[in-house]
Structure prediction request, 412 residues.
Amino acid sequence: MKKAVHYINQFFAGIGGEEMADYKPEIREGLVGPSLALNSMIDAEVTHTIICGDNFMGTHTDEAVEEILKFLEGIDFDIFIAGPAFNAGRYGVACGTICKAVKEKFNVEAITSMNEENPGVDMFKKDIYIFKGGKSAAKLRDDVKKMADFANKILNGKKTGSADEEGFFERGIRSQVWLDDKKTAARRGVEMLIKKLNNEEFVTELPIPKQDRVDIAHPIKDLSKANIALVTTGGIVPVENPDRIQSASATRWGKYDISNLERLESGVYKTIHAGFDPAAADADPNVILPLDVMKEYLREGKIGKLHKYFYSTVGTGTTQKEASRMGKEIVEELKKDKVDGVILVST
Amino acid sequence: MCNLVPVALTVGANRIVPTISIPYPLGDPLTPKEQQYKLRYHRVGVALDALTTEIEDQTVFKVKF
Prediction:
């Protein structure tokens, strides 16, 4: 029987949530959490489960990858599966990171699954198979099944189809195929052109990926005269959270007057971000919203002015659409108030 | 300023200054207060200087500590 190894995070291993997100890599023989479902669907034995905390993988990436590759050196396996990671950003990036590394080192196929909003998709879709997954763990079985079905084709040496046919994110790899209708490229091209001229729908064979890039802002010429604002996606708010910004999947942002403050005090400000352990930021909110040092730079004259308000929202599970809308709304205010530059701290 | 620099590069941030972690980007609670302040002062300073720097591509600015 063929063999598989499965990667999951500390949460799905049942070790703990955010407070355990610094958990170091560990390998266990046999099945843990989602590996049970995987093992029941895949034509292979899931012999080992690798567990790593999402923050550990995010912050000590090289160390985590090296350690995990070391675990795998003595193990015989035919395929590597990670996740599913749903819309959990750090978990998605971790799954992508480890899949890519394992594929490169051991030359086995690596498969994972994420929701389309997961930043890991754009980072790794070219390198590995990332299946289109649900937004939350409610879709665990469905997402595992999609990965297992595809893994079975690979394990059994069957032909695999295109990204659309199989359900993974397009990898930008072109392969030659024989078309059943035997139409040449020239004929297909002309047919598309005619459709276009007639304002009819047509499907291109060479989609150009859309890049949503922001132009590079011009440098500030004289910082000592500039008005600088602080913005964060780390969920720092007054303790009563007056704007009721959501702790995850935020659609709201707030602005808070800091003109008369020297620093953000614990107990007066806190973080409402549900994507990480809030202990450190609650004890000292300046570790996310660095008001204390900005006031020092203001006193020193390095900056001309610190904008009266700081702006805050929560960046976990937040869709790109909402994030982009909130960003535009905040920028509008900043422009109106003649802010020259922004320091954005994300978590 | 962020900890997950590869994510910032992917989403298209142009001037990037690394922070030290996700839950506490600008001050490790296991270190003394003064050291946290020093680190924060340094990295925010790098970010302020980054705002004045002419760049042609996405740039990750170097921090000393």
User: Anything to note?
Assistant: Chain A has eleven helices and twelve strands. Chain A touches chain B through 50 residues (CB under 8 Å).
